[in-house]
Amino acid sequence: MKKIENTKKMSKSKTITNPYLTGARIDPMGIAKGMSVADLIDANFLAYNAGRLREGCRLYVEKMLKKDVTIGMSLAGALTPAGLGKSVVIPLIKAGFIDWIISTGANLYHDAHFGIGEKLFAGSPFVDDVDLHSKGVVRIYDIVFDYRVLLNTDLFFRETMKADVFNRSMGTAEFHHHIGHFIRERERALKLKDASILGAAYEAGLPVFTSSPGDSSIGMNIAALALTGSKLVIDPNCDVNETAAIVLNAKRTGGKSAVFICGGGSPKNFMLQTEPQIQEVLGIKEDGHDYFLQFTDARPDTGGLSGATPSEAVSWGKVRPDSLPDTVVCYLDSTVALPLITAYAMSRAKPRAQKRLYDKLPRFMNKLRSEYLQALKKS
Q1: Which residue is catalytic, options 86, 256, 268, 318?
Q2: Pairing of strands 121-122, 137-140
Q3: Which domains are present in the chain?
Q4: Is 285 a residue of the active site?
């Protein structure tokens, strides 16, 4: 009898102390009518990429959204044509849940369609593209719109960029800030509400960068104006240093830096290279981003940056080694993940004060320059 009791005690002790058996028990409640998105995720997203999404939601709300964390979001893939600017990014900006953005130029170009009143429609991927072309219809997978949407948006950019404020060299944060002002004015004239990321970013003082400004219709229109004497030139040096300055400021003021990566590609690299720029190139002592959250459909084994893991980023100094427990990669389409994490955050977190980093960029740059000059003296 004593032997049986001792065995029970040992079994109980092992269960309690076994570190592999301390997670949430897989015993979900049934999904019920009226259940909120946040409750659904917490109670029923328990394993595989659903589990990673739940972990990402909690990382975002419980750690990344603290007041002392500066959150950079990168946007790759055709997200804005699918309406994710209006449904996700603008609400996150207004709530203070993101502080700066790096996007493909294409996302910002298509974002402008909404800000100037153009229309896109849900369609089908199973159509005759030759017939679409003959009828003047453009397709982005299952999104369709009139070819004139492109022509009208091109015209908006070309006419807007003739304003005196654009007739010089500048970085993309300043460029998008001025464009956002003009888009906001167009929205007001058309009685549109929160239609454009750039309009919302302008009002929030949120800097928006493009990692490859020539690789989009915006860049194509800038190039067209150059043929007629425009002095507008996008300065990538400005972008490299300003993004690094944002991250350095976050750390030097006693806070933390978080990256919220949607997709991969050039915006992901541009956001993560801020730390190598600080450490490797400028020789300033730093130790990497503190939080890493990514939604991607790219595999890591092909060697592409889009699928590169946070642990690989540690080897470059991009992510702080001690921060690996605070990194989540969810292999899920951003068009699915972003509305879910946004709904979760809106339900579980209070709005944060907007940091208005755009207004502070000159001060951040002075700090970066000062630390670089000090590093040069020591080298």
Answers
A1: 318
A2: unpaired
A3: 35-378 (3.40.910.10)
A4: no
